[in-house]
Every structure is written in structure tokens, then in C-alpha cells.
Amino acid sequence: MTTRTAREPYLETHQSHPEPITPYERKLAGSLSEVYAGGVDTLDGVVEGLNNLGLHGPNGGPWTAEGFRAEMRRLGK
Questions:
Q1: How remote is the C-alpha of 56 from its chain's centroid?
Q2: How does pLDDT run across 13-58, given as a tens digit for each residue?
Q3: C-alpha span between 39 and 62 (Å, rounded)
């Protein structure tokens, strides 16, 4: 077992992104950061927050819980 110091950087495999971040992904990440900074910690709250910010879902309509889960799965591949 390897012990890491607090300052030693590391990257887990699932944290890497194979291609450059797209403008859509950058906007979604910024919007999610804004929603989370507001104290939201539930899926319904995230969906409501994205919709309140006026960020459209991938289908061009409002975000839904199912749509958010599907998009996170898609982006996580």
C-alpha cells in the first residue's frame, strides 16, 4: 500500500477526460457549480436549479431527473 502526502497530486482513472472540454460541458459545469454553491444537495434541487438558471437540457427542453441522470451517464463515459 502506498501512502500519499497531502500535497502529492493524483488523478483517479474515472476523473480523466479523453477529449477537450466542449463549450456545452464548460457551461454545464459552471451552472452545476453555481447550483451547488447555493446549498443544493438533492437531484430535484439540481434539476430545479439548472432550469431556474435557464440552462436547457440536451434535448433543448427543461431538465428532468431522468434526463439529468442520462446526461451524467453519457458524459461520464
A1: 14
A2: 656 667 888 999 999 999 999 999 999 999 999 999 999 999 999 9
A3: 21
3-state secondary structure 18-65: CCCCCHHHHHHHHHHHHHHHCCCCCHHHHHHHHHHCCCCCCCCCCCCH
Over the range 19-44, which residues count as b (16 or more CB within 10 Å of their CB) and which as e? eeeeeeeeebeebbeebeeeebeeee
Q: Return the higher-pLDDT residue of 15 and 69.
A: 69
Q: Using CA atoms, how far apart are residues 72 and 52, in angstroms rounded to an integer? A: 19
Check: CB of residue 63 under 8 Å from CB of residue 51. Answer: yes
The separation between CA 57 and the C-alpha centre of its own chain, rounded to angstroms, equals 13
